[in-house]
Write a structure and sequence with these properties.
With 270 residues, the chain is α/β, with parallel strands linked by helices. The chain is 41% helix and 21% strand. The longest helix is centred in the N-terminal third of the chain and has 21 residues.
């Protein structure tokens, strides 16, 4: 009997040593898809690497959710449209990337309750070059012209709905969009005003055109995408969002994100 106990203890110790050596852990991971090209919501600090390079409001939100769930966080960077595909295919647990409510998203995904990231989404605007300032302040002035918008975004939908005389030119990420704007592939690009302010802060050749899209109240806040039918995770996320709102975290997180975008990190899309 003593020999059996000794052998069992040796097996336990050997397993523990193997785990320590291989770095394996029982801590599970929350995988969050994110398109880190959207300051101040999610973007990259070029002075850092790995998971530490991702900063912004949504990054802080993701860290909060993972911590409250007792999970390790893995941010999986990808294009904005790929974030949505990754959720529907179950490749990630959720996508947090400045998403707004849209009819097709309500059909395809479980949507969380909304959260308010300062005034980032309060206005949706057109970004253009300083050389073209004030030329594109109305829908009529854009008739027959190309307007850029990120693929599968709220902005793409808004351009189609509210500037019907224009042609939408889609781009996969905002960095590429700005390059195309400078090249003249389109005369203006649709972005959230908070994002426009962050871009302009690091690019003095760009400015807002003066055009503002008309928004309904359901488009002023953001939400999280989860796989259709994942009601348990959705309920947990909603509880934690309510807790964060009650604690007043959103205001603090947004102020920090603005500092990161305008002061802590130089934002440039050259």
């Amino acid at each position: 009997m003593n020999k059996c106990i000794a052998l069992a203890l040796c097996a336990v110790l050997a397993f523990g040593l193997m785990t320590a050596c291989t770095g394996k852990s029982d801590v599970k991971t929350l995988k969050v898809a994110m398109s880190p090209d959207f300051a101040p919501m999610e973007f990259v600090d070029a002075t850092k690497t790995g998971q530490e390079q991702f900063i912004g409001f949504d990054v802080t939100l993701a860290k909060y959710l993972a911590s409250e769930m007792g999970l390790a966080l893995e941010i999986v960077p990808m294009s904005f449209d790929a974030c949505q595909t990754a959720v529907s295919m179950g490749q990630v647990d959720m996508a947090i990337s400045g998403f707004s409510w849209m009819p097709d998203r309500a059909e395809k995904y479980n949507l969380s309750d909304t959260y308010h990231a300062g005034d980032n989404e309060s206005n949706q605007v057109l970004l253009t070059t300083v050389a073209n300032k004030d030329l594109y302040a109305t829908a009529e002035s854009l008739s027959g012209l190309n307007v850029g918008a990120q693929t599968a975004s709220l902005q793409e939908w808004l351009v189609k709905e509210q500037i019907p005389g224009s042609t939408v030119v889609p781009y996969t990420d905002i960095t590429t969009g700005i390059m195309q704007l400078r090249k003249g592939d389109f005369v203006a690009m649709a972005v959230a005003e908070g994002n426009a302010d962050a871009i302009i802060a690091g690019n003095d050749d760009l400015c807002k055109s003066g055009f503002y899209f008309e928004l309904t109240d359901d488009l002023l806040d953001n939400l999280i995408l989860m796989q259709k039918g994942n009601d348990e995770l959705t309920a947990t996320v909603n509880d934690l969002l309510a807790k964060a709102k009650e604690a007043g975290y959103y205001e603090v997180w947004y102020a920090d994100a603005l500092e990161q975008a305008g002061v802590g990190v130089e934002i440039s899309y050259d």
